[in-house]
Amino acid sequence: MPKLLLSENWEGWSAFHKLLLFLFNFLAPFLKEADLQLASHDLYHGSLQLLLILLHDFPEFLSEYYFGLCDAIPPCCIQLRNIILSMFPMSIILPDPHLCNIKFDLIPEMGPIPPILSDFASGLKSADLCNNLNQYLLNRGTPSFLTTLKDRLRLPSVPESSTKSYNLSLINSLVMYIGVSSVAQAKARSGLSVFVASNPGVVAL
Ligand SMILES: *[C@@H]1O[C@H](CO)[C@@H](O)[C@H](O)[C@H]1NC(C)=O
Q1: Are 200 and 152 in the same domain?
Q2: Ligand 1 atom at minimal distance to the Cα of residue 168
Q3: Which of 17-21, 40-44, 93-97, 98-102 has the highest mean pLDDT?
Q4: From the CA of 51, how far away is ligand 1's center (Å)?
Q5: Span 60-68, mean pLDDT?
Q6: One GO MF term, please (predicted)?
Q7: Domain contains 109
Q8: DSSP code of 4?
Q9: What is the pLDDT of residue 151?
Q10: Is 13 in the same domain as 79?
């Protein structure tokens, strides 16, 4: 693990991320059922410890790959996901959220766009959504796009009434993709990554 994570120019990070994804994909069916036998229980605990080591020594790795990792961990595994979601790079000093009158958009740390190394757009390409979505985000889409979007996120062959009738991974990819493209577009247009309520991406979300 240190060899991959301490490699020059972070060359080993992508390989280590893949290995972690294999681990979580293997564990996911056991965790979803919350049915941990001795072996899967040990593996779960080992994974938890591994994340705690990463949290301590490589927070940048966890924060830059959080998207892919959280996507692979079932939503019911709150502890595993919280470890990853609480990560932030060592170079950032978090503001005290209990301070009164704090204006979050004026905090310098809110400015830089955080690096996201997971390939969050790949899910959209396989769903053939990307082209239509890009057109829509550039204000060139067809008016019907937004109304059909919701149905495109449904899982095939799951009844509409089921609480699990949507493809969560696809929704996560879509939200991330819209967010990243909208910020990039706003920055290209005005030089600022400001929130514009009429931006097609904001409307879609
Ligand atoms: C959800 O969408 C992703 C990306 O398009 C796809 O790879 C995955 O198979 C879908 N999941 C289900 C359960 O259909």
Answers
A1: yes
A2: 1
A3: 17-21
A4: 26
A5: 94
A6: molecular adaptor activity
A7: no
A8: H
A9: 85
A10: yes
- 86/97 Cα distance (integer angstroms): 14
Cα 56 to ligand 1 centre (Å): 33
Query: CA 17, CA 5: separation in Å to the nearest integer?
Result: 10
Residue nearest to ligand 1 atom 2, measured at CA: 170
Measured distance CA(81)–CA(31) in Å, rounded? 12
Residues 199 and 123 in one domain: yes
Domain count, the chain: 2
pLDDT of 94 > 70? The answer is yes
For residue 154, report the phi and psi dihedrals to the nearest 5 degrees.
-75, 150
The pLDDT assigned to 127 comes to: 65
The alpha carbon of 26 and the centre of ligand 1 are apart by a number of angstroms equal to 17
Residue 161 inside a domain? The answer is yes
Binding-site residues, ligand 1, Cβ < 6 A: 123, 126-127, 155, 167, 169-170
Containing domain of residue 34, as a range? 2-85
Instruction: Please give the distance, rounded to the nearest whole angstrom, from the Cα atom of residue 167 to the centre of ligand 1.
Output: 6
Is there a domain that residue 93 lies in? Answer: no
Q: How many residues does the chain have?
A: 205
In a domain, residue 190? The reply is: yes
